[in-house]
Amino acid sequence: MMSNTKELTVDVRGSLCPKPVIETKKVSDANPNAVIITIVDNEVSRDNVEKFGKSRGYGVGIRQDGKDFYLTMTPNANSVTEVSCEPMNYGNRVILMTKDYLGEGSEELGRNLMKTFWVCMLEADVKPSKIYFINSSVKMVVNDSVHLENIKKLAELGVEIAACGICLDYFGVKDKLGVGSITNMYAITDAILGDNIVKL
User: Which residue among 9, 58, 137, 175 has the highest number of C-beta atoms inside a 10 angstrom radius?
Assistant: First the structure.
């Protein structure tokens, strides 16, 4: 290890993913030439932080001390180039939210996954250009939604947020819209036909 290399510690013991990866990413983005030591206390977080480090071109060493794992991420020529460059331009991507939970099966699990989804979306290098909300997903953009704060942050970053007016009326929450604009099915259909759509 070079003597002049800055060494930073990210202690995320007691945290579950995606927080260990997100906190490590924040330090990496702000200090691309530093050695980062991330401390976690579970194998899932260990594996995910290791994958993140390798995806950024770091050399990753892992040391276990009891139940704790110390991941030392050392930058090299590849990591400096990769971290400092601009994210790849994937073009305009539109997300169509169709319900207020993710996946099929357990709705309770799906609602917990949705909370994690918005946190990860905020930290992603590439953001969608627009997010449309239809059916029960409009409940996520009203004033008492647990997701509202994160969706507002996306709007502040320039992501266009729009909710279906008919859907807001159906659930009786049109007057509680907390972020974005009210749109119609014509505009949503036009986006589906003309843009790169991801349906969730």
Answer: 58
What is the CATH architecture of 94-199?
Answer: 3-Layer(aba) Sandwich (3.40)
pTM of the prediction? 0.61
- The residues facing 162 across adjacent strands are 132, 181
33: helix, strand or coil: coil
pLDDT in tens, 109-155: 988 888 888 888 887 777 888 899 999 999 999 998 999 999 988 88
Rounded to whole angstroms, the Cα distance separating 199 from 182 reads: 19
Burial class (CB in 10 A: 0-12, 13-18, 19+), 151: buried
Domain ranges of the chain: 7-74, 94-199
